[in-house]
Sequence to fold (488 residues):
Amino acid sequence: MKNGFDINELTTSALHNWYHADEHALITLPLHWDRFQNPIRVLNLEISAPANREEIAGDIVLSWSPGILLQSGKTEILYSIDGGRTDYPLGTIASADSSYLWSTTDHPDGTRYKLRFNVEGRTAPDEDSVTGVAYTSGHFTINNPGNGYPEIVLTSLVEAEHVTGEYLVTWIASDADGDSLTYAIDYSPDNGRSWYLLAEQLKQPSFLWQSMNYENSKIFQIAIHAHDGQASRSDTSDVFEVYNERIPAEDNRFTQITGNGTPLIELFIIDPEDIDPGAIYQISFDDTSFGEKVFYVINKINRDTLIKAGDQLHRFRESDLFNGRRLLIDDYTTAEINEPLTRWETTSSNPDISVFLPNISIGGSVRNGIPYPADYRIAIADQIIDSTSNVFETTAKGVYFIIRNLSENKDADFIYQDQNKDQKLGDHDLVYLLEKNANQEYDLIWAFTLSGPANPVPPAAGDHFLISTYKPVISILSEKRFYSNSII
Ligand SMILES: [Ca+2]
Ligand SMILES: [Ca+2]
Ligand SMILES: [Ca+2]
Fold:
């Protein structure tokens, strides 16, 4: 039976065609399956081509036999230089032919060549096609005159991995000319941005890496280089994590000197023998001198700069080693609400406080709240003690509460959607906090609303609550540019 049914219009609206399609599939799938399983329809190719580990150069004749005479169709020949990982077309010829002259001088030296033959044709015009695929066995070498580059492939750290303690880095390397190879390894703790030497002048294709002597980093990479005396080639690992357990420095105390930033900072002892017990260190942050935020570690006693412009600020990576220690800093990218501390500071009132970044349409343009790094205290009074701002086409109104920006020690500006127009903070009222930007224009920052709970105790005079934020060490919105911590 041929693959033919009456020609049907196949559209999703023509329901009867789906019936035929179903019937067609039911009948033909077993037939197709039978064809795939039937060896008569699949060619067994016999190949005469470079054997495993054979070395070739110049012009060579590749030949093969499909075992039966093919009258039409084609044969594709593909080659791989990397042991079959990637195939590239070499040539396409009629399937009646069974040999091909390959001029290897167009190809670089290599020890991991492989060929693939895809044959497809018919023994007679009215017959089903037959197909065959065959590969040369193993790998062969092309060694044309002149030096060829070494070949190198990492066999460890190929996919994301955890490295801890002693780790054996392994690779496979070869050289078509038979040159002896030496190896060097570079490492990058920062996703390939900067590279440092890990080992060099290695003769064996492996290296026992003492990873505990290197910084913990989730974005580590290594690159391995093979050199044949004239030229070198490299392979680079995937990004992997180096993690070795650290001893927390028990005696460390952090004292905030200036600024409002709230980074998390941990101090570890890496080498107890290098620790100077009397030292006092200062960490300073700077986002004005470089294209990114950086930190410095200074020995306060002798003014030595121990870390200059460190960029390990986001917990992915430990700092460089200084005096037998490393820091792990986790700075905030933008201000975030500190949920545990955003709460009523007095016990009588209980509405839930929800703080968010608003986006509201004012005068036809949408304004988005900016995560501003400041803490605010909202205090309830029994009389009108403050007024909303008359910005964004709103009218100033007296209110029974006042909002202080605690971080900058000033009264806060705000506008207000007063649900029941009583000028008192209550259920579902919305308050939009405002701060002036560098152009002295108001920006919308955080907004908050009060709601619930089931048995509400509404705010009363004397009650106050806090909006607390986690803050980056340096705010782009404030004038404060430096933050320091001292570690004693
Ligand atoms: Ca050569
Ligand atoms: Ca070579
Ligand atoms: Ca109200």
About this structure: The chain has four domains: 40-142, 151-242, 247-330, 336-470. Residues 477-482 have pLDDT under 50 and may be disordered. The pocket of calcium ion (ligand 1) is lined by residues 109, 143-144, 146-148, 176-177 (CB under 6 Å).
